[in-house]
Amino acid sequence: MSTVIKASNLVQGYGKTIVLKQVNLEIKKGEILALIGPSGSGKTTLINSIMGMINPQKGEVTLLDTRMPNRKILSNIGFMAQTDALYWTMTARENLAFFGIMQGVPKKQLKKRISYAAAVVNLEPSLNKQVQYFSGGMKRRLSLAIALVADPQILILDEPTVGIDPELRQQIWKELHHLASEGKTILLTTHVMNDAWEADNLFLIRKGEAIAQGTPRTLIKKYEVQTIEEVFLKAGRLQDAHTSND
Ligand SMILES: Nc1ncnc2c1ncn2[C@@H]1O[C@H](COP(=O)(O)OP(=O)(O)OP(=O)(O)O)[C@@H](O)[C@H]1O
Ligand SMILES: [Mg+2]
């Protein structure tokens, strides 16, 4: 299988503060990878670096064998940022149409694509409502629908399941698995451990370093524990022991 997303020896930060230290990440076509780590560990920084929104301080990021930042590649990506970027005085339908057209959805297909994306996140009843009247969870759901509207090859989703109830979360996961089976590549971040079990591969990040990666089952076995949380704690302790030896 071919590599779709790759970060090599990525060092990233803000000014003099280093946030990501030599991160290496590879995601193959049709794979779902979940980025897991505590608040402030560098997940969004990594996502934004992969999107090309911030230039690497060192190392490089490639998407579909193209070095980022690259504007042309962006039309292949459905992106959901951690902070919703929506037009508040427009309806949900208008937001979906706007972003759909921006992403190159042909006019003829727009209606069908909007119906599909709204259905995945159960937003059909609210399509004609202005976003300013939406709850926080509804805005997250609309942001996810926007990421899906143009049928992109790559989905990059920063905390897509925040504010989403368990039933809808299951429905969304079903669709993400379906998309992956069609060859779509999916990178997401999450704090929800149930999400971790849905992913093909996990990438555990702590203090800007990858502390463990692999399938959920492999990691549980390797660290001889019962849960992903315990994998995280054990890998974290090893990281601290390693750092204090330096
Ligand atoms: N624009 C910025 N300027 C300066 N520092 C920043 C900026 N964005 C993030 N940081 C810092 O970089 C570190 C990593 O932040 P990041 O947002 O990548 O974490 P995260 O893992 O996504 O956290 P969360 O789970 O809370 O979303 C934090 O220490 C944060 O304070
Ligand atoms: Mg974040």
Explain what this protein looks like in three dimensions.
This protein is an alpha/beta fold and 246 residues long. The chain has one domain: Rossmann fold (3-Layer(aba) Sandwich). The chain is 38% helix and 26% strand. The chain is built from eight helices and ten strands. The strands form two sheets. Strands 6-7-8-3-9-10 form a six-stranded mixed beta sheet, sandwiched between helices. Helix 2 (92-102) packs across helix 3 (107-120) and helix 3 crosses helix 4. The longest helix is centred in the last third of the chain and has 18 residues, at 228-245. It starts with a strand and ends with a helix. The model has no long low-confidence stretch (mean pLDDT 95). The chain binds adenosine-5'-triphosphate and magnesium ion (MG). The site of magnesium ion has 4 residues, from helix 1. InterPro entries: AAA+_ATPase, ABC_transporter-like_ATP-bd, ABC_transporter-like_CS, P-loop_NTPase. This is Nodulation ATP-binding protein I family protein. Pfam families: ABC_tran (PF00005).
